[in-house]
Every structure is written in C-alpha cells, then in structure tokens.
Amino acid sequence: MLYTEFGAGGLKSSVLGFGCAPLMGRAGKRDSLRALATAYEYGITFYDTARSYGYGECEALLGEFLRGKRDRVLVSTKFGIVPAKQNLLKRIAKPVIRGALRAVPSARKLVQKGIRGEFQEGQFTVEVLQRSIAESLRKLRTDYVDILFLHAAPASVLEQDDVLREMEKLVQSGKVRMAGLSADPEVIEAALEMHPYPLSAMQFPCNVFDLSMTQSVASSSPSGFGFAANQPFGGVRRAAETRESLREIANSRETSAELREKLGSVDDSVLADVVLNVITQNTGIQVVIPAMVRPDHLRANAQAVLHPRFSASEIQWLRNRLSGVGQPA
What we know:
- There is one protein chain.
- The strands form three sheets. This protein has an eight-stranded parallel β-sheet, covered by helices on one side. The protein has a two-stranded antiparallel sheet with strand order 1-2. Strands 6-7 form a two-stranded antiparallel sheet.
- Mean pLDDT is 87; it is low at 325-329.
- The chain is built from 13 helices and twelve strands.
- Helices cover 46% and strands 16% of the residues.
- It has helices at 29-41, 58-65, 88-103, 108-115, 126-140, 161-173, 185-194, 212-220, 235-250, 257-263, 268-280, 295-306, 312-323; strands spanning 3-6, 11-14, 17-19, 46-48, 74-79, 82-83, 119-120, 145-151, 176-182, 199-205, 226-230, 287-289.
- Helix 9 packs antiparallel against helix 10 (257-263).
- The two termini are 32 Å apart.
- It is globular.
- By secondary structure, it is of the alpha/beta class.
C-alpha cells in the first residue's frame, strides 16, 4: 500500500481509505467483517465511520474488528446526524431488505427514501457533540479517535463558536487528534477561506466529472490541512458514465495507441485505476475513501493505488478529458 502524511499532526495514513457506510446496513455482519479483514490485509489503515452508519451499529462492529489493531490504524468518525433507535422488528427486517435489494436492485431508491426517516440530521450542538463522542468512543472500544468530523454540515456551523470551542477542548484532552469538516464542496471552500480553528481535516465528495475541489485545494494550499475525498466513483450511475466515457476515449483517434491499449476493455481494475489516481495524483488530496465491501473491488482499488498502469502525464490527460478542464494535447 502507498502511505502519506495526513495534515500536519503527524498522522500517517494509507492513500486508500475504507468507507464504512455500507457496514451493518447494505452489508450484513459477516460480509462487513470480511470486507474489513480484506481491507486490512491490503494495508488500508484509514477507516472512516460515523454515528449514523449501519443504523448506529457500524462503530461497534469496527471497534470489534480493530481489537489488537487500534494502534496501527487511523479511525475517523462524525457527529451531527443521530441514528434513531432500532426496535426489534426493524432489526429483524434488515436481512430481509438486503435480500430483496439483491433480487431487485431497482428498489434501492425506495428503500433509501425510507431510510432517511431513520435519522435526525443537523444536530450540531455542544450537548449532542458531548453525547456523540462519548458514545463513539464506547462503541469503538478506544479512548481516542484520530479525526472527528462535523457530518454533512452546513456553512452556518462555521460560525458556531461554542461547538468549535468544544471540539478544540476534545483535541486538547487527547480524545480527538484532529477536528474536521465533512461537507459538500461549497461548504469546504467557505471553510478554507475562513480557516475556523480547530478544523484542519476536510472531507468532501469528489469524482472524475467534478474535480472542483482539487482546484480549490491546489489554489488555496493551506498548510497543515488534511484532505480526504469520498464517493470517488459517484455511485452506480456515475460509475457507469465513467466507464462509457473511458470507452469513448479508448476509441478516439485523439488518444495515443499506448493509452488505448492500457484502457483495454475498461474492466473494474481499469475503472479503479483511472478514478482513484485522477483524484489523488498531484492534486493535494491525500486520502481517497471509496465505500466498497466486495473483495474483488477492494483488491482492484488497492492495486490501482499501489501499481498504477498509467503514467503521471496520462493521468493528467485523462483528468482533463473527463472533467472538461483544458484540452487534450
């Protein structure tokens, strides 16, 4: 695995992170533990979870898995979205829902609409923060988290001095090593302009069709900040669009013969190679965090970061073509 320094706090991280969002939700306990074991085997050391993931059960599963490994990994969690308590009927129904989704993938949107009602969003108060970090530490079976993010925060949270002061106290106490913001790109850009202390870790969605944050990071160049990109494949629809775009590039006369050969049939390994390296190579983004649980996908992601088939100049050329920034040489 390839490793990097995340921010100025001396945190060493794998360039490839593991997004825990599917654990104990889309994936059951057995598949979730298998995915974590595969990720760890491939040298992934950045595990990104949240209080709301897995209907509130993900942190506990991650804590169970990391017993005996805690000092060799980075754990980030989030607060601001509070999971509703699950009654027995809902717990029993989850495996049934997973099976239905495997049989009828088109039902996913309907299920996701129902899931949104299971959470209380925008809970950015000192009281919620204190309860949330205490619960996260308990479930993760640790006395500190490496990064604590404000979860899906609006720009207005940057002016909540009481919450920011409380996060600073958590850093000073050692319960949190870095405080950060997980939000949409426009909120991250506002934070980079304001530099609200103590926020020094930034997490945001970034895919090959929207690389605006790579430009913002490069232009602002704030020292001491850590940058992590999530949702790099952009979901099923975006991944399919990326494949189609790469096929068009592979069939274009403007594409060199060598690059056409490397693109090949645009299988999972080629897709991972392009997506992950376009986002991380020479952009200032230190960590990319896909949320994937299938072992073959995890393998493709790890190989893409460790042994990219494309040169730096080819990645830049593909970045320009996919994002529409600049013209191919």
